[in-house]
Automatic annotation (TrEMBL):
Pfam families: Bac_luciferase (PF00296). InterPro entries: Bact_Lucif_Oxidored, LLM_Atu2307-like, Luciferase-like_dom, Luciferase-like_sf. One of its GO terms (cellular component) is cytosol. This is N5,N10-methylene tetrahydromethanopterin reductase. One of its GO terms (molecular function) is oxidoreductase activity, acting on paired donors, with incorporation or reduction of molecular oxygen. Keywords: Monooxygenase, Oxidoreductase. It comes from Staphylococcus ureilyticus.
Amino acid sequence: MKIEIGLTSFADNSEIFTDKGKTSAISNAQRIRNIIEEIEIADDYGLDVYGLGEHHRPDYAVSDPVTVLAAASRNTKQIKLSSAVTVLSSDDPVRVYERFSTLNAISNGRAEIMVGRGSFIESFPLFGYNLNDYEQLFNEKIELLMQINQNEIVNWTGQLRPNIQNLGVYPRVEHGILPISIATGGTPESSLKAGALGLPITYAIIGGDPKRFRRNIDMYKSIAESYGHDVKELPIATHSWGYIAETDEQAFREFFPSVKASHDVLAKERGWPLYDENSFIREAGPNGALYVGSPETVANKIIETVETLGLSRFMLHTPVGSMPHEHTINTIKLLGERVKPIVDKYFENK
């Protein structure tokens, strides 16, 4: 059984926190250049997929993942290149398809679209969308995107976007269609929607016991079957925060400061409790959602999650917060060179 191992990033860019203190943030331009290098290293070390997030705020450097992925595609050969996610509700499905079909051409067929409703909502007022239409925007736009993906000539009628009457969308994908999946933090609505549409799903598991997502996955499969979809043909993936070093102790020491800094920014915005070492240690343990430690520790936790949830892809989200670039590069190398072989060997005869 082949399990894909990959990475996701939000291109975090704020003050850099380490166990030795903090330093000033680098420029967004340099962070974007670093991301391109990280993707190239991931490809060199045999990782299967890299997903890049879209944000429109000062502490994340990338607002248009496709442009960055396209730049990275020129010096990569095998790695799949995905958004993580495209905030479809505040974008236009025609432009989304056009951008990703162009990326697909540049990368020789390696483009993927991971769409979501948007857990960060800055893009809605920025592009003139009403948050009261949050659900309807996504539902209309995912259906239009799927129609465009399947048909060169589009006829479509909706309520929140101008109708399309017998018009073509170009360029078309060279072979087949674009892989489209829905990403979710675990809301039942997203599992139900993905199952009904017969789309692959990615769960962002960033807190609590990953095993609790078994219920979401069972619901997703049940709905998919009820709509006539073959669940064996629907890949299920997760992404979770993580960091790898030579030892568990080193990984814990180096990762905690940036995780706390990143979490606490969102905690203040959203009314969450602040992060502390007890929370970190709990999440880094066997029943938590942090994949942090030595290569062996991280590999074994990935294996358990893949088996428990029936995954076909696991993506490590790193860095969380701003970390020194060399720390991120080292994690990527260890994931490809030492974690992935352990996972591959375990599942090769499953």
